[in-house]
Amino acid sequence: MTDHRDLLILGGGLVGMTLALAAARRGISAHVVDRADASALTAPGFDGRASAISTASWNLFTNIGLADALEPFGCPIAAIAVTDQLRPGRIDFRPEPHEGTLGRMFENRRLRLALFEAARGEPLIAWHSRADVRRRHRTAHGVAVELAGGERLDAALMVAAEGRASPTRDEAGIAMARWDYRHRAIIAGLHHARPHEGVAWEIFYPQGPFALLPLRDTDDGAYRSALVWTVAERQAGAILKLADRAFRAEVEKRMGGLLGRVEAVEPRSSWKLGFHHAARLTDQRLALVGDAGHGIHPIAGQGLNLGLRDVGALVEVLEDGLRLGLEPGDAQLLRRYDRWRRLDVFSVALATDTLTRLFGVPGRLPSAVRRLGMAGVERMPALKTWFMDEARGVSGRLPRLLQD
C-alpha cells in the first residue's frame, strides 16, 4: 500500500525539519527526504555554526512546541552594536527592558536536536535519511520521487528545501539571479576573558564584516561567542591554516579588546558567500523554501529567519486551503504563497546586499561618511526602533505561526 502524504519535503536541514513539524502541528502529513544521516547532523562539532533566532522565529518555535526544549541552550541578544572599524560614530541597538530582547543565539546543533526529538514520535512525519533521490515526478495530479534503493514516495505537493544548490529547483528550470561575493565566512567558537553581556558586535572592515555573536557560557563558566569573519576568497585558505596561537592573535587584533584575551578557539570552518534569488518560488506542485529560493549575505544574520518565515507562510496558506477543501498542490494556494513571500525576500536580500557593498568601500572618506550616517541614526529613536523591529522580524505581514 502506498504511503501517500500531503507534502514531499526534499531536504532535512533546519528549514525542512521545521516545515515538517509545523505542518504536522496543523494536521498536514509529510515525507522528509535527506541524503545525510541524522546522527551525523547532530554530532558535536558537525559544522560549528550558530544562528540568530529573531523574535518572530522564536514565536514560531514556541507555537510548534519547541521553546521549552530550546530555552536552556539559548543566549539572549540584549543589544546589537554596529561600528566601522571600531572608530567613533557607532550605533547601539538596545531595546527598553519592557521590549524584550532582539533575539536569541543558538548553536545549530541544538536546534537540530530539538527538532529531531520533537519529530521522532510524530506519526504525520515520515523521515527518510541517507536517501538519494533518483527521479522526481510532478504531474497535474500529484508528485513522487524514486529513491536510489527503489522506494517510491507519493504526495500532493513537493517542497524543495535542499539549500543553495537545490537540484529540484534547477530541474524545474526556475531562473535565478546570482553573483559571487568572492568572500568566505570563517566560522569558529571563541572562549574569551570578558563576558559579552549579550551584545552582538558587527564590526565592518574594508575586507568584510567581523561579527562576534553571544553564545551561552559553558557549564564550567567560560565566556563564549560565535565568530563570523568575512575574508577575501584568496585569503581564506591561509587564515584557516594558521596555528591556534596565530589565529587568536589575528582575531584579538580585530576585536580591539572588546572581549579581552581570546583563550581558546573551537574548530574552524568556512563557507563561500554568494547571493541568489529565484525569479519565482513556485512551479507546478512545487514550492521553494529557505536557501533553495533565496541566499543572502550573513551580514545581518537573517538567512535562517527568512527561511522560517517561508515555513510560516506556506503552512498558513496550506492550512487555509485545506479548510476550504483545496488540496495542498492547488495552483491558487501556490500563487498566494509566491506573492506573499517574494516581496519580503527581495526586500531583505536587497538591504543586505546594499549594506555589504556600502561598508566594503575602502578609504578614509567613505569611512567618515558611513560613521556620520551611523551617528545620525543613533540620534533618531524612531529610526532605531524601525531597525530593531526589522531585526526582530516583527515588521510587515507575519504568518500566524510567527505571531506572539
Can you lay out the helices and strands and say which pair or pack?
Layout: E1 4-10, H1 14-24, E2 30-33, H2 38-41, E3 50-53, H3 55-63, H4 67-70, E4 75-76, E5 79-84, E6 91-93, E7 104-107, H5 108-120, E8 125-128, E9 133-139, E10 142-147, E11 152-160, H6 167-171, E12 176-192, E13 199-205, E14 208-215, E15 223-232, H7 233-241, H8 244-255, E16 262-265, E17 269-278, E18 282-283, E19 286-288, E20 294-295, H9 303-323, H10 331-359, H11 364-378, H12 381-392
Parallel strand pairs: 1-2, 1-11, 2-8, 5-13, 11-19
Antiparallel strand pairs: 3-7, 4-7, 5-6, 9-10, 10-11, 12-15, 12-16, 12-17, 13-14, 14-15, 17-20, 18-19
Helix pairs in contact: 1-5, 1-9, 9-10
Structural class: alpha+beta
- Could you name the CATH class? Alpha Beta
- Fraction in beta strands: 25-35%
Largest sheet: 9 strands, mixed
Mean pLDDT level: 91
Helix content: 25-40%
Q: Give the quaternary arrangement of the chains.
A: single chain
Radius of gyration: 21 Å
Distance between the termini: 41 Å
